[in-house]
Each structure stands twice: as structure tokens, then as C-alpha cells.
Design goal:
Length: 297
């Protein structure tokens, strides 16, 4: 069979240089973003915060909605291991936490894994994030401190080889190395990292090699933007740009479409997917009544 291509006779200087600079593509990363009208979401979060007494932020809501999406579509809760795509047994969401250390150059990035996040309601997610983020920033998170001590023991020159070896031990075999400070599957089903807290409207994040986490969600800063209404009028409303990073080994356009539609619906119409704010006010009152009964007894 004859070839259906032929070499170019001449290259431009830049094209010749570029062929020497880059190898053939082997990165499965897909980036995407969508700016959504969140004029219903912001008042909803304010109402939930007031009813529950717990401040529910956009990052906390993002963690809850991602867990809800993976619960709705369990076949999307997957992970790459070696040459296989494996189904996860639990829905865990990793939320990244910025740790200030006095200067911008020495600031650190850490995080919290919400185990079985699909079993937590919105206020429980917000409560855990606030509590655990405080522990991480104060150096009181036991798991994180053990992991940091382990990392400090490894010379920089050996870090890459050590990470590959630990990846093999904890995922391919797998062995439980919690006793030596190496956490099993520390990143979970999905990562959430907010760039809005840094006054950034839109950002993108890479997939973390060795994390086996195929999905990263990045909510940006809430800002005001004109939107076209159903009556073809223009109104300025609250807007949020949600960026996502996907591992193409796990998701193609069909699966990504499911995730984006579910995410868009939860950002635009939170009351369709989560309880009314009065749900938490009622729960708070019932808890207070129970406490009074116990005290009286």
C-alpha cells in the first residue's frame, strides 16, 4: 500500500527548532471552562449559612456538588492504575489548602481529603473543611504532618524515584503503608482548588502525576457580568467561571458532557439538587430541643 504522505522539502527555521524541542504528544490532559450565572447560588449559600450558623462558601459547595455528581453517575468515579481504568469503591474529594508562611515565595500548598464525601450534607462539608483547614494551617493535622516529615527525609535527587516506587507499592500491589506516614490514595476521586480566594476569576490546574485523580475542579472569583435573559434582555448578574481538568484516559467527550451539564445545573439551580435552607434551621432547632431535654433529665 502506497504511503499517503511525504516529507516537506523545506522547513522554516522555527519549525525545525520546534521539532527538536518537543517530543510527540503523550499528555492526556483536557482543559475546559464555563462561565455560569450564579445569581441563584449566592443567595442560597447566604441563606444556608444563616440558617445553619456555618458559613458555606463556593469552594465548599463545589466539593459537595462534585461528590453529588459522582454519586449520581457512579461509573464516572474511576481512576487510572497502570494500563487499566479501575472503579473506585468510595467517593472522596480532596480540597487544596494554601498555607501562608510569611512570604509569597515560601507559601505552601497542602490539602484535606473528605472521605466518603457523598455521605456528607452541604453544611457538614463546610464544617469539616473549615475545621480541618484550620488544623492544616496550624500544623495540627496529624496525617499531613507525618507526610511532611517523611518527605523531608528524602533527598531531592531521589524524590522522583522514591515517588515512583511508592506509587508501585501503594497502587499496583497494593500495600498499606500508613504506619510509615504514606497515605493510601491520598487524593481521592476529585480535587477541588479555589482560585477565587486569590482574587482570580479563572485558572487552570494540571493533573498531579501519581495522584491517580482524573478530575480537578477550579471555582474562580464571583464577579458581575452581563447575561442574556430568556426574554432576550441583558441583565448584569453574579457570574462564576468554573474550570476543569480531565484525564482523557478516563473521560472522553461523552462523559465530560455529563459532568459539565450536571455541574452547570447545580451551580445555576442549587435548590433543585440540595435541601432548602430551612432544612438546616429545623435541624438546628431539633438539636437544641434535644439538648434541653437531656439537660432537664
Amino acid at each position: 500500500m502506497a504511503k499517503r504522505w511525504q516529507k516537506l522539502d523545506k522547513y522554516s527555521p522555527w519549525r525545525k527548532i520546534s521539532m527538536g524541542l518537543w517530543t510527540p504528544p503523550d499528555d492526556p490532559t483536557i482543559y475546559g471552562k464555563e462561565t455560569v450565572d450564579v445569581s441563584n447560588l449566592i443567595p442560597y449559600l447566604d441563606e444556608v449559612s444563616e440558617a445553619s450558623g456555618v458559613r458555606v462558601t463556593v469552594p465548599a459547595y463545589t466539593a459537595a456538588l462534585m461528590a453529588d455528581i459522582l454519586r449520581t453517575h457512579p461509573d464516572l468515579n474511576v481512576m487510572p492504575i497502570g494500563n487499566h481504568i479501575c472503579q473506585r469503591e468510595t467517593i472522596d474529594v480532596f480540597c487544596q489548602v494554601a498555607v501562608s508562611s510569611g512570604s509569597a515565595g515560601s507559601a505552601d500548598l497542602s490539602g484535606i481529603k473528605l472521605r466518603e464525601a457523598d455521605d456528607l450534607d452541604l453544611v457538614e462539608v463546610a464544617t469539616l473543611l473549615r475545621s480541618k483547614a484550620g488544623d492544616v494551617r496550624d500544623g495540627k493535622n496529624v496525617e499531613m504532618e507525618e507526610s511532611k516529615r517523611f518527605v523531608h527525609l528524602i533527598p531531592n535527587a531521589l524524590m522522583g524515584a522514591m515517588l515512583n516506587f511508592l506509587d508501585f507499592l501503594t497502587y499496583s500491589i497494593p500495600w498499606d503503608l500508613d504506619a510509615v506516614g504514606v497515605r493510601s490514595d491520598p487524593f481521592g476521586s476529585c480535587m477541588v482548588t479555589s482560585v477565587g480566594q486569590f482574587d482570580i476569576k479563572q485558572g487552570f490546574a494540571p493533573l498531579v502525576p501519581g495522584s491517580h485523580c482524573p478530575l480537578v475542579a477550579l471555582p474562580g472569583k464571583v464577579w458581575r457580568k452581563p447575561f442574556a435573559t430568556e426574554d432576550d434582555e441583558v441583565e448584569v448578574r453574579d457570574a462564576l467561571t468554573m474550570s476543569c481538568t480531565f484525564d482523557h484516559r478516563c473521560y472522553d467527550g461523552l462523559q465530560i458532557g455529563y459532568i459539565v451539564r450536571e455541574m452547570r445545573s447545580r451551580l445555576m439551580y442549587p435548590r433543585k439538587h440540595f435541601p432548602e435552607p430551612s432544612h438546616w434551621a429545623d435541624a438546628s432547632e431539633e438539636s437544641g430541643d434535644a439538648d434541653e431535654t437531656v439537660a432537664a433529665e
